[in-house]
C-alpha cells in the first residue's frame, strides 16, 4: 500500500470512487469515513469529527465517523465520486494518517494511507555536496554565465558585489535600458561620497552636452543682476541711523511726559474744584425746608386728638389734615368702629359710643405711636 502526500492546508478534500462486488458504482446510500493518526510507537490517535481534533487511544470519541457526499454531473445522470471536506487545522505536518471508508454495498472497507505535508521518506542529512542552486564563479570570484540555471528570486549577501567582481566595461549605456535607473531605484543614503571612488566622474565620463544641460537650469547673469539691483533698492529705503535715533528720542520723551505729575499739582486741582463748588446758603436751605413742610402738611403732635368717622373713610384729628404724614402715622393704629386718640391715650368705642377698650400709647419724638399697652 503506497503513501500519498497531501498538501498541508487548512482543509483537505478526500475523494473516492466506490464499487459494489459486481464492479458497478455505488451511487446511493450512506458512505462514512474514519481517520486515525499513526504515532511513533505504533499506536494511533482517533480523529473526532465533533470538534475536528485528535484524541488518544484511551479517550472515547464523540463522533467517530462522518458522512461523505455523492458528487454527480450531467444533471445527476453521471456519478463522479464520494467526497468529504476535512478540517485539517489540527493535523500534524509530516504525520501519517490511516483513512477508512465504509458503505453497506461495498464488499470490504476501502483503506488508504497518506501523509500530511512534509517530504516522503527519511530526508535527514540529505544535503547536496554541490547544490544545484549555487552560482558558479571563476578564480577571481566573478560570477560566470552559461552553466547556471535560472536563479530568479535569489538574493545576494551584503557586500557580495564589489568593484573587482565587475569586469571592465561590464556596465555601459548600451547595457542599461532607457529609464532603468531612477531615483526610486535607490534607497535613501545609497549614494554617498564614500560609495563613489575618487575621480570616478570626470570629463570623459560626461556626455558632451551634459554641462550645457546643467547650465540651462542655472540663473543667467542678467537674472542675477536684476536680483542684485532689487536688493540694493530695498536697502536704500531703509531709514538712516539718525532717523532711528530721532524716533527713539521722541518715544522716550513721550513716556517721560506721562509721569510728569507731582503731588502738589494734584492738591492744587482739588482745591480749585472745591473753590468752584457753590453750595446753598442758610437762607436758601431754610426756604427749601418750608417748601417741603408745606408739601407734607401738618404733622400730628403729642396731645392731638384723632377722631375716626368710618362712614367718611377718613380720620379727623385736631389740625391733622387728611392725606398728611400725621394722618398716615396715627391711622396705623385703627381697627374697626370709632376710635379716639388723645395724647398717649387710645380709646376704642363701639358704634353706639360705648368704650370697648383703652390703651396707653408709646410715642416717638415726632408724636408717632410705636407701641400700645391695654389698661
Short recap of the structure:
The protein is of the alpha+beta class and 375 residues long. The protein contains six helices and 16 strands.
Features of the shown structure:
six-stranded antiparallel beta sheet, alpha+beta, 375 residues, seven-stranded mixed beta sheet
Per-chain topology:
Elements: E1 3-6, E2 11-16, E3 32-38, E4 44-48, E5 53-55, E6 66-67, E7 69-73, E8 78-87, E9 96-102, E10 110-116, H1 210-216, H2 221-236, H3 241-258, H4 263-276, H5 282-296, E11 305-309, E12 314-317, H6 325-331, E13 338-342, E14 345-349, E15 355-363, E16 369-374
Parallel strand pairs: 1-10
Antiparallel strand pairs: 2-8, 3-4, 3-6, 3-9, 4-5, 7-8, 9-10, 11-12, 11-13, 13-14, 14-15, 15-16
